[in-house]
Amino acid sequence: MDNITALGGDVYEIDTRMAGYAGITAGYLILGDRPCLVETGTSTSAPVVRDALASLGVGPNDLATVVVTHIHLDHAGGVGDMAAYFPQAQIVVHEKGARHLADPSRLMKSARMVWGDQLDTLFGELSPTDAERIVALGDTGAIDLGNGRTLASHYSPGHAKHHVGLIDSGTGDLYVGDAAGVYLPQTGDLRPATPPPDFDLQTALDSIALFQALGPQRLLFSHYGPVGAVQETLERSAEELRIWVDLTKQAHEMGMDLDHAVAMVRDRTRERYTALKAEDETAEHFELLSGAPSNVAGILHWLDKVSP
User: Fold this and answer.
1) 3-class DSSP state of 181
2) Which of 24, 94, 240, 304 has a CA 20 to 30 Å removed from the CA of 227?
3) Domain contains 236
4) Which CATH number covers residue 184?
5) Mind listing the pLDDT tens digit of every residue in the chain (308 residues)?
6) Three-state DSSP class for 33?
7) Which range marks the domain in which residue 210 is found?
8) Is 37 a domain residue?
């Protein structure tokens, strides 16, 4: 299948084809003794992911674990569907996200407020997962991949209060979710992901520092793909956060409303990203994944809490 890439170490990247786009959201299959899917993608992508697993030899009763870095719908929207397709799989999530997977009604209601009619095309509906099948992680935890190989989870909020990073003992791969931002493989651009309501600068920087301390061999971005230049990329992700916060702070101090703040930050950061110079589909992808409106709104929300 053309949406599967072998990354070595029995790890496969699966393009979930979010909303029909390529290169937007990745899920990853670790194909050990106890096959594990990291990130499901959206509900509308669930059949794509299921078919990719089937083509890699993982049938309905073979998947041991589904783990999500956090419960935003582009990462975990397909959890209920995958739980139904793979009835033996345990569903692993941070304890702050567990109840929303069991009863997604509040999560879906707030998502509908943010996305409106776009919700159905972009994400679809997160269906509930039987609470008995959900394993809730604390600040650290470990998922058994079989043969002594584990996927260790590390609580890494800042982007979202239910976010974890996951490190594979077999490969040294670190699944960074959205805590290190959004990476665009076509151009090598990296930009923060700071949506409301949970963004907090120090917490986000602490999460990146934790990732550095774990000494991973490679970063696997949910958006999008593997990156080998670990320290350099994590340093860049901290720098990006500081730049976006500084610019949004200036707009906040000048009393700008959201639209004007977004326009200013977008204008002053544009030169940092090759993708935005292209004015093509790549630029559109970037905006969809790490939109300036959502980033600036998240930073303003945080600024209103810390310096009203």
Assistant:
1) coil
2) 94
3) no
4) 3.60.15.10
5) 899 999 999 999 999 999 888 998 999 999 989 999 999 999 999 999 999 999 999 999 999 999 999 999 999 999 999 999 999 999 999 999 999 999 999 999 988 888 888 889 889 999 999 999 999 999 999 999 999 999 999 999 989 999 999 999 999 999 999 999 999 998 899 999 999 989 999 999 999 999 999 999 999 999 999 999 999 999 999 999 999 999 999 999 999 999 999 999 999 998 888 877 776 676 676 676 668 899 999 999 999 999 86
6) coil
7) 4-228
8) yes
- Tell whether 271 is covered by a domain: no
Dist. CA 37–CA 220, nearest whole Å: 13
Residue 90 falls inside a structural domain: yes
Reply yes or no: is the peptide bond before residue 224 cis, omega within 30 of 0: yes
Give the position of tokens 């000494």: 215
User: d(Cα 196, Cα 194) in Å, to the nearest integer?
Assistant: 7
Q: How many domains does the chain have?
A: 1
Tokens of 71: 């419960």
**Gap between the Cα atoms of 127 and 83, Å rounded:** 10
In 3-state terms the chain splits into helix, strand, coil percentages (rounded to 5) of 45, 20, 35
Q: What is the dihedral sign for C-alpha 91, 95, 100, 103?
A: positive
